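Per-residue structure
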Amino acid sequence: MLSSSPPYEHIRGECTPGDVASKAASIIPNYSRNHKFFLQLSDFFWTSYRSRFYLPYGTNGSEAMIMQTLALTYHYDTPHEIDRLQCRRCVVVGNGYRMKNSSLGEVINKYDVIIRLNNAPVHNYEKDVGNKTSIRLFYPESAHFSLNLDNDPKTLMVLVAFKSNDVKWLKTILNNEKRVRYVMRALISLVHNCDLTRPCQ
C-alpha cells in the first residue's frame, strides 16, 4: 500500500527500459520479457510434472477443471496498451483505511499499470485512489464490486484461485451455466405443477 505521508512525488521515478528485466534475469532461470503473465492451455505443465499439492500451491485434483477453464479463456491476455510499453511503471493499490483522505489519486493515475485487489472501491474515492484500473485481482468471495463504476471498460479481471471451487466458479460464469441451471429448474418446476390432462400455461 502506498504511504500517506507526504511528499508523494518521489513514488514515481524514472522508468529505465531493461533495468528490471536485467535484475529479473539474474535471479529467475530462463527469464524472458515475452513470457506470458498468466497460465495458458498450451503450458500443460502438469503432464510432465504432476503437482503433489492442492490449490493454491499446486494443481493436484484440479487439472481437468483448469484445462476446461483455460480452453474458454485462451483469447484473454495482457491488454495491448500495457504489452506495447517498453517500460512499465506499476502500482498496487490496497483498500485499507489509510487510503482515505490520502489525496493520492493524481499520483496513482500517473502509473502505467494500476493493480487493485478484490472489491477495492474506486467510485466516490477517486481523489484518494485514482480512477484508472488496469488489472483487478480477485477471488469469488470478493467479486461483488461494481464492474462499471469501479473498473475501466478494458480492465483485465484476474481470478486468484485458492481452491478447486474457485476454478469451478469461473468456469460456471464463463459458460453461463448458472443461467442454464436456473432455466432447467424452472422447467422442472413447471412440469411438476402441470395438469397433464391439458396443455401447460
Observations:
- The CA atoms of residues 136 and 157 lie 5 Å apart.
- Confidence is low (pLDDT under 50) at residues 1-7, 180-201.
- The chain is about 30% helix and 10% strand.
- Strands lie at 90-93, 113-117, 135-138, 156-159.
